[in-house]
User: Fold this.
Amino acid sequence: MATSRDESQVLVIGSAGVDIVGRPSAALLDQTSNPGQVRVSFGGVARNVAENLARLGTSVALITAVGDDPQGQALLDDARQAGINTDHVLVSHEQPTGAYMAILDPVGNLHLALDEMRVVRNITPEYLRSRLELFREASMVFVDANLSPRTLSTVIQLARRAQVPIAADPTSVALAPNLTPHLDQLWLITPNEAEAEALHPESVPHDPARATDAARQLVSRGVEIAIITMAEFGLVYATADRSGHVPAMQTEIADPTGASDALTAAVLFALLNSIPLDEAVRLGLSAAALTLRTHGTVRKDLSLELLYDQLV
Assistant:
């Protein structure tokens, strides 16, 4: 996708918080403490996408909400150091900074997770309307589904009024249905298999052919580009005139947290820079593989050169 706003920034709206991720040394035992490794970093789908885009050299403005606490201040400081414009982040005096807690299995796959993102509900339709100029100046808007339904509707409305393409991440199975009323307004959507099933119940996990059909169904409902990520099976994608399956790259898994956000950001970066979709999704898988090998949510040395080196 080429854009006429080449010098403008991507507007990223949604969640940010602290990630706490534990990986056991052996098989998990219920109802007791398990020896393992625990790491803490900054996360949140929108924040992760914003940092990946910034590290790829894209100008990014982030709208999120954090608490008036040390974690929130540290998150904002870290985002600024990564090159993200945080001038429009809300600071709440009522709710704490959001948090995501994940327990992995011994090989690095997600076992279960909890998140607490109430603070994001401070992003109201009125707040977004007060930032209308950001929409008018954006080359693209990315949103995650942590926003309230009213606020999500306002994002869609303001972006469409400004004639800016909208990319969305369903975020979780529970939140994915929030995007259902807006599918015909989306330029791009990037669900995983479970989220795709929440959006299109006929899809079948671990079956690339059926997943491709599900991606085509999302396109038939108005999405321009549908990408369904399938973990070790890679991804499938569809547009009005093409579709395909790209296998995953074989890689060790240090931590899966943030891998899908890196994929989304790399695809967005590629498409905004007029890289063809077939190549863009491969760069996305490259970013995911690099992030899977990282003990953290974002690969700090991410660059376009590194993405191509991984492809080779």
